[in-house]
Amino acid sequence: MAGSALLLSGCGVNSIPAQEEAVKARWADVENQYQRRADLIPNLVATVKGFAAQEQDVLESVTRARASATQVTVDPTKLSDPAQLAAFEQAQGALGQSLGRLLVTVEKYPELKSNENFLQLQSQLEGTENRIAVARRDYNGAVQLYNTEIRTFPSLIAAKVIYGAEPIAPFKATTVNAETAPAVNF
Length: 186
What we know:
Elements: H1 2-10, H2 15-49, H3 56-71, H4 82-108, H5 110-113, H6 116-151, H7 155-163, H8 175-179
């Protein structure tokens, strides 16, 4: 009896679900950071609107992108579907591009940069972007551990026979965000 318990513990019966839960937790962290960014944007837009009526189209594009980005979600039980992750990243990428345009606007109008509230929100937004990058990295690390666990012996036995485990898709940057530098035109 003790031998079979030792055999089962050595083939991933316990580690596979633990690592799968770790992946889900890291994905929740990614979503949490995107939500933090979405929550900051209305405040950022309201502050900037008070100072930049001449750039209304930029602010409206940020608002539209934010609304679009919050509509796209990924079901944690379907993290193995790369199409869901791609759609999520595409919506978030559009929001990131709009925010980039907003920051270029700020560079054009120094009076906006002098506003203390804007600087505070800008700093929070930059911090959030960094947190998103860290959350993505942590998620991909958890995915790598899980995918390695379900593909290596002896855990692959439990992964296939007991759990029917499938590899989970890592978070990938979109082509627009990864390969194209943002254009800054003054």
